[in-house]
Amino acid sequence: MSDVYVMGIDMIRFGRYPERSVPQLGAEAALLALDDAGVTIQDVEALFCGNLMQASGMVGQRILQEIGQTGIAVTNSSNACATGATAFREGWTAIKAGLYDLVLVVGVEQLGKAGLLGGRGDGRGIPKEGLLGSGTMPAVFAEAGMEHSRKYGTTFEQFAKVSVKNHHHSVKNSKSMYQKETPLEMVMSAEMIAYPNTKLMCSVNVDGAASAVLASEKKARELGMGRAVRVKASVLTSDPYTERDLVMPDVNTCTRRAAQQAYAMAGVGPGDLDLVELHDCFATAEILHYENLGLCADGEAGKLIDEGETAHGGRIPVNVSGGLLSKGHPLGATGVANIYEVSTHLRGEAGERQVEGARIGLTHVIGLGSACGIHILEKVA
Amino acid sequence: MTKAAAAAGPLPVVPFLKIPETGDPYLEGRRCGECGAIYLGERSTCSSCGARDRIQPHKLASTGTLYVYSIVHRSFPGVEVPYVSAVVDLDGGGTIKGNLIHIEPSPEKIQMGMPVEVIFRIAPTKDREGNEYLTYYFQPREM
Ligand SMILES: [Zn+2]
Predict the structure, then answer these.
(1) Using the beta-carbon criterion (under 8 Å), do A132 and B98 form an inter-chain contact?
(2) In terms of domains, do A11 and A144 share one?
(3) For residue B105, is it within any domain?
(4) For the whole model, what pTM was predicted?
């Protein structure tokens, strides 16, 4: 089977675009990616589109109405916050299967000022929120973080440091929603949403789009491998049965399984990674995923953040883009945008925030419910 | 007679809360006879081991220990905050989520692993038809 290469990839700046439509946002990213690859829509053999909020709205076809209705196969994917990674993987799978040599992937979302709490659950009987605990996203991920505190004594301050770091990283990313420093004191004294997550420890709801052009080995050679990025592993898992998953969505087990499979597929280990973009939907989550992805031993995530190992310049920089906490989290676009970030470093084109000498990177997203998508990418030239 | 006849007493807030004709209310899960996994709702096939038609009703304990919690300060409009969202491991198996009450909502006061008990109360809100609901809460338990 052919290796699969990222030949072009880009994203629009994450932000709020109330005057624009979802297909327009997706189309802008798609054109950027096509230009980056040096191809046109006439060269593309299939489109894989990820979008969550308009999952029944044929978003991929509407993007083609903006950039060229060539009659190609369009597949629309929705998989919670793993939607973008799922669309990317569908494209990867199709090339692996030998069906196509060149495909386009788009992840796009328009959230506007959607509340940070998430959905309201079922409407039967009386409302359960605040009566039978909380199903809001900040509380669900707070409880997941408290499980880590319970096992290892992780503190509110350690969780808060994740947010300080990612906001600090975003200062050098012009495509980030926010680009401002948030010192520890500011993060910890921000409005408490669901202890231990304050408002600055919750990801930002934004509009955004990101797109990638994927090619088979044959097509990649034809186009030129100079800036190509090899997809070393593409893995998708769902949550296996675990004891408490009826009331505590388990984001750990599916990540651990996906990581194991991805490292095996790529023939690398966590020690080979030069940078990681992981799913910091809440500050608490990033701590869990340090261990889930094997960046440190179980129980050492608090130490990892304390010692600055995951900061830019540290042993294993995590979320140098600013992460979901500062760059923003446009659900369907998130999983393609983090592949953009890693690819840009592997190409040596990340400017001020470049991780020097980056050769291998990993991206990770989690959709609650649950889906975990992991990709391992490698510099070619 | 419609089932909304108010004289019949409160309705259960969730299907796994049982209100017997006589005696105290209790929680009832479902247990897989093959692997012992415990569920809170109806199902015919075990999602842990895949066994079919081995799922039986299983009365849940009214005592347990606090597994984890969050103190919720921001919720949907109309929901009174702060409150403690708690995940409780029941003695003898089963994990449920609910509000932990009769404790100060402060990380200094709440200890993960602390013993709690399940208590039943009429919920503060009614549905659109005016039906009352019986709900459950957790409270600290003296050892
Ligand atoms: Zn079973």
Answers:
(1) yes
(2) no
(3) yes
(4) 0.95
